[in-house]
Design brief:
Layout (H helix, E strand, L loop, with lengths): L19 H23 L9 H7 L11 H16 L19 H11 L2 H13 L5 E7 L5 E7 L10 E7 L6 H4 L3 H8 L5 H9 L1
Antiparallel strand pairs: 1-2, 1-3
Helix pairs in contact: 1-3, 2-3, 4-5, 5-7
The chain binds manganese (II) ion.
Length: about 210
């Protein structure tokens, strides 16, 4: 049985970047539905005692295609949202901290090495988020040698299925931004840099 993950901040802590209303729908309703669906699906199956990562990797393709990807889609969406909701921190001060909020240490070194600069990384990440057609996720991920890549994943997919370690993500399903930004996906992605908790992303990178 899986449980709805707890938020490491108050539901209004990410305002004005993400409103309390969006958090309540996105975490309290969308994510809760994926958790409820997966728990019903896995009861009494081989997946019942597996970690999420293993369900996602083992339920791709094959016979599971014939089952409408239900295991994969629900487990993938839980994994994706758990990583998403735990990567943010409260907006501090006047909310104008875009340039101040940046990675440091080994993660910054890797970003500079693999993308040229933090600014170039952010530009490529936003561009990949804006150009992802339909619903999905854009990810910062690391390969087994620690090389960083940005991947576009449709629907419930996660770079873990490509053997990559997921580090940071932006959800480009409309439910992530429609209440606050309507159809302005680019404006939403640009605003999210203010609330990325780079200490948490560094922790995942070193793990
Ligand atoms: Mn979502």
């Amino acid at each position: 049985m899986f449980s709805l993950i707890s938020l490491p901040y108050a539901p209004d802590a990410l305002e004005p970047v993400i409103s309390q209303e969006t958090i309540e729908f996105h975490h309290g309703k969308h994510l809760q539905t994926y958790v409820d669906n997966l728990n019903k699906l896995i009861a009494g199956t081989e997946f019942e005692s597996m970690p999420l990562e293993e369900i996602v990797c083992k339920s791709q393709g094959g016979i599971f295609l014939a089952q409408g990807h239900d295991y994969f889609n629900n487990a993938g969406q839980i994994l994706n949202h758990n990583l998403y909701f735990t990567q943010f921190k409260a907006v501090t001060g006047d909310g104008v901290q875009v340039t101040a909020n940046a990675p440091t240490g080994a993660l910054l070194d890797a970003i500079n090495r693999d993308f040229g600069s933090f600014e170039a990384f952010k530009a490529e990440f936003e561009q990949k988020g804006v150009t992802l057609f339909g619903s999905g996720w854009v990810w910062l991920a690391a390969d087994k040698d620690g090389k960083l890549v940005i991947t576009q994943e449709s629907n419930a997919n996660n770079p873990i299925t490509k053997g990559l370690k997921p580090l940071m993500t932006m959800d480009v399903w409309e439910h992530a931004y429609y209440i606050d930004y309507r159809n302005r996906r680019a404006a939403h992605l640009q605003a999210l840099w203010q609330i990325i908790n780079w200490e948490e992303i560094s922790r995942r990178f070193k793990e």
